[in-house]
TrEMBL record:
Compartments (UniProt record): Cytoplasm
Species this protein is from: Trichonephila inaurata madagascariensis
InterPro entries found in the cross-reference section: EF-hand-dom_pair, EF_Hand_1_Ca_BS, EF_hand_dom, Peflin/Sorcin_CaBP
Gene: PDCD6
All copies of domain EF-hand, residue ranges: 29-64, 96-131, 162-199
Protein name: Programmed cell death protein 6
Amino acid sequence: MRLSLLDVSKNKKIFRFINNIEIMATPMPDQQYLWNIFQGVDKDRSGAISATELQTALSNGTWQPFNPETVRLMIGMFDKDGDGTIGFQEFCHLWKYITDWLNCFKSFDRDNSGTIDKAELKTAFTSFGFRLSDAFYDLIVKKFDRNVANSVTFDDYIQICVTLQSLTAAFRSHDKDMTGVITISYEEFLIMVVRTMFHPA
Ligand SMILES: [Ca+2]
Ligand SMILES: [Ca+2]
Ligand SMILES: [Ca+2]
């Protein structure tokens, strides 16, 4: 199987993405402030935040529930002790992660519509170092256009960015000679997708 995603010069720029996020990164607020938020999210006062509690607390700017895939993705990333929930220390890192993503989202939502349209998405991804065709952006917006408004909401935006980053990293791990083209077997392809796309419930 032959896959071509990015050329060499584009590949090198992917890491700028992380730098961009750092530029926009907010300083960590004090523990008391975060503790108050944590207690507000922990509705059943169990001392930990479940996927349901996190989903309820988060808003994508519409009346629709926050994308459960994005919630699962974030719990998977920040549940360091692996108990399936988010404890307070884990929450502090998660809170910062969400805030940084929100700042990133807002900075690319040029018309302040609360959603990212195709042109805004293209500007965002181009600044992250991706060079992708209009057909690709059409596909992404069509796939995530939940409100039939040709745009992407905050929760889906996180999922798109994180998934694309993971897939690009997986691609790069096969692209040893940095040509932007890889040759992989069917099973290697499946392994790449499963590792990237599927997260334990
Ligand atoms: Ca709880
Ligand atoms: Ca945990
Ligand atoms: Ca917008």
